[in-house]
Amino acid sequence: TLTAGVVAVQGDVSEHGDAIRRAAANHGRDAEVVEIRKSGIVPECDVLLLPGGESTAISRLLARQGIDDEIERHVKTEKPVLATCAGLIVASRDARDERVETLDLVDATVDRNAFGRQKDSFEAPLDVAGLDEPFPAVFIRAPLIAEVGRDVEVLASWDEKPVAIRDGPVVGTSFHPELTSDSRIHDLAFFAEAEA
Ligand code: GLN
């Protein structure tokens, strides 16, 4: 059984739980989903999910609960993380916003709300490296990935800007793969090595 921790201080938590269960089932695995609201749980987890929501709130609560250091340790031991939208903002090196205490899990600089306000949310078919068919990507007040470091692999771009990246064990997306029934991004983040 795969223990999947969903950071649950704020944001779209239950959707990620469903998505990782579906992805695990596709690979003949069981996933036990645990919600992370306090310290002490991350060290038990095989994989972590950092959901969308409001990055200022998420980063503040992670620091207050002492979960931030645990997530950094998880990544240092090369265990996988999928960070989506606000989760990617929190996981970035720099969010160009003092209110967000970033975790520096991926070597990327992001701009919050760069695609515009809520009304500018949209869904689009997206070509993603490693996927045969386009992925239905849901963007909701999505961050834009402004700069990536040399070791970062760009998995997908929209309008010539990266919107899905991989840096070692961490996959980050500007969009919300947990909001569709398509679990291929969760597959890429957590089960790609098993395939290879
Ligand atoms: N705009 C939000 C933020 O900056 C992220 C939006 C989302 O996660 N859907 O935190």
From TrEMBL:
<feature type="binding site">
    <location>
        <position position="112"/>
    </location>
    <ligand>
        <name>L-glutamine</name>
    </ligand>
</feature>
<dbReference type="InterPro" id="IPR021196">
    <property type="entry name" value="PdxT/SNO_CS"/>
</dbReference>
<dbReference type="Pfam" id="PF01174">
    <property type="entry name" value="SNO"/>
</dbReference>
<dbReference type="InterPro" id="IPR002161">
    <property type="entry name" value="PdxT/SNO"/>
</dbReference>
<keyword id="KW-0315">Glutamine amidotransferase</keyword>
<feature type="binding site">
    <location>
        <begin position="140"/>
        <end position="141"/>
    </location>
    <ligand>
        <name>L-glutamine</name>
    </ligand>
</feature>
<keyword id="KW-0663">Pyridoxal phosphate</keyword>
<keyword id="KW-0378">Hydrolase</keyword>
<feature type="active site" description="Nucleophile">
    <location>
        <position position="85"/>
    </location>
</feature>
<feature type="binding site">
    <location>
        <begin position="53"/>
        <end position="55"/>
    </location>
    <ligand>
        <name>L-glutamine</name>
    </ligand>
</feature>
<dbReference type="GO" id="GO:0006543">
    <property type="term" value="P:L-glutamine catabolic process"/>
</dbReference>
<comment type="subunit">
    <text>In the presence of PdxS, forms a dodecamer of heterodimers. Only shows activity in the heterodimer.</text>
</comment>
<feature type="active site" description="Charge relay system">
    <location>
        <position position="178"/>
    </location>
</feature>
<protein>
    <recommendedName>
        <fullName>Pyridoxal 5'-phosphate synthase subunit PdxT</fullName>
        <ecNumber>4.3.3.6</ecNumber>
        <ecNumber>3.5.1.2</ecNumber>
    </recommendedName>
</protein>
<dbReference type="GO" id="GO:0036381">
    <property type="term" value="F:pyridoxal 5'-phosphate synthase (glutamine hydrolysing) activity"/>
</dbReference>
<dbReference type="GO" id="GO:1903600">
    <property type="term" value="C:glutaminase complex"/>
</dbReference>
<comment type="function">
    <text>Catalyzes the hydrolysis of glutamine to glutamate and ammonia as part of the biosynthesis of pyridoxal 5'-phosphate. The resulting ammonia molecule is channeled to the active site of PdxS.</text>
</comment>
<dbReference type="GO" id="GO:0008614">
    <property type="term" value="P:pyridoxine metabolic process"/>
</dbReference>
<dbReference type="GO" id="GO:0004359">
    <property type="term" value="F:glutaminase activity"/>
</dbReference>
<dbReference type="GO" id="GO:0005829">
    <property type="term" value="C:cytosol"/>
</dbReference>
<keyword id="KW-0456">Lyase</keyword>
<comment type="similarity">
    <text>Belongs to the glutaminase PdxT/SNO family.</text>
</comment>
<comment type="pathway">
    <text>Cofactor biosynthesis; pyridoxal 5'-phosphate biosynthesis.</text>
</comment>
<dbReference type="GO" id="GO:0042823">
    <property type="term" value="P:pyridoxal phosphate biosynthetic process"/>
</dbReference>
<dbReference type="InterPro" id="IPR029062">
    <property type="entry name" value="Class_I_gatase-like"/>
</dbReference>
<feature type="active site" description="Charge relay system">
    <location>
        <position position="176"/>
    </location>
</feature>
